[in-house]
Design brief:
Helix content: 40-55%
Oligomer: single chain
Number of helices: 7
Order of helices and strands: HHHHHEEEEEEHEEEEEH
Number of strands: 11
Structural class: alpha+beta
Shape: elongated
Radius of gyration: 23 Å
Mean pLDDT: 83
Strand content: 15-25%
């Protein structure tokens, strides 16, 4: 599979990835718990560990998008590690509370369906115990997220501006083309050839025909570089080349989709839709 093909269905693959990770963990824990119960005299039905683990897994999966959003706001990158780490540590508290609340609600529904009552226990003790587990899970999820992003960048071939890393050379606006370095090779990219730009964690990806150029740059930074070059922000994670937009497909919700000449489809949020229409007109 080529990176371009993967990125077209990226959200679907990422959802399947998280379901697989959390699902395997839940199944393994349910099996081992039942094995331990078989060796003890505890009056616990075999279905109960499955309810415990599956309810926890479903609640955690629902929180993954929130964790990703917090990481976008506080990325663990050079120069911001301490501040971002403290932000993540602070967020781990509401993360745990939301996880426990959703988990307990699901368990109560499952137990009621089986004709039983579910008791979580002493909330003061149980919440402390659950937080100790959840803060480890939070760190585990963050590690998976950063490993996934690293592997994706390696697969695409991470690129960078040739002036990157030189403190005496601040970011400069692009005239009509710029040089980037990818996999040890230098490429000349014409601004007019860029179809659209997508945010990817701490990086942005330039979509240039069938080629992808992941750059360690922010959306605000790349937007500043391309100021006055016919590009428009259409989403918090997307910038399009106005000359490459073929059609705007509106939705009743106020959002839209931009169909590009190269075949790509870019989400347009309500916030930017009207401005995009005016610029295209």
């Amino acid at each position: 599979m080529q990176p371009q093909t993967y990125l077209q269905h990226r959200r679907l693959y990422e959802a399947a990835f998280w379901i697989l990770i959390v699902g395997v963990h839940a199944v393994a824990n349910s099996i081992t718990t039942n094995i331990d119960l078989a060796r003890s005299d505890l009056a616990i039905a075999r279905w109960e560990p499955w309810v415990w683990e599956c309810s926890s897994a479903v609640a955690l999966l629902a929180l993954v998008p929130l964790l990703v959003a917090v990481d976008r706001r506080f990325p663990l990158e050079r120069g911001r590690v301490r501040r971002s780490a403290l932000a993540h540590l602070a967020f781990s508290v509401p993360f745990s509370l939301l996880h426990v609340a959703a988990m307990v609600a699901l368990r109560e529904l499952a137990y009621a369906a089986m004709g039983y009552d579910y008791r979580f226990g002493d909330w003061r003790v149980a919440l402390g115990y659950e937080y100790l587990k959840d803060v480890r899970t939070y760190g585990y999820f963050l590690a998976i997220l950063y490993l996934y992003r690293f592997a994706l960048r390696r697969w695409q071939g991470e690129a960078g501006f040739l002036t990157e890393g030189r403190e005496d050379r601040p970011a400069e606006p692009v005239v009509d083309r710029f040089l980037i370095k990818k996999l040890g090779r230098e490429f000349l990219v014409r601004v007019d050839d860029i179809d659209w730009i997508e945010a990817a964690g701490n990086y942005v990806t330039l979509h240039v025909g069938e080629r992808l150029y992941p750059l360690r740059e922010t959306m605000a930074g790349i937007q500043a570089r391309l100021e006055g070059q016919g590009f428009a922000r259409v989403h918090r994670s997307a910038i399009v080349n106005l000359d490459r937009v073929r059609e705007i497909e509106p939705f009743d919700t106020g959002d839209a989709r931009a169909h590009m000449h190269g075949g790509g489809v870019v989400a347009v949020s309500r916030r930017y839709r009207q401005a995009l229409k005016e610029r295209l007109a």
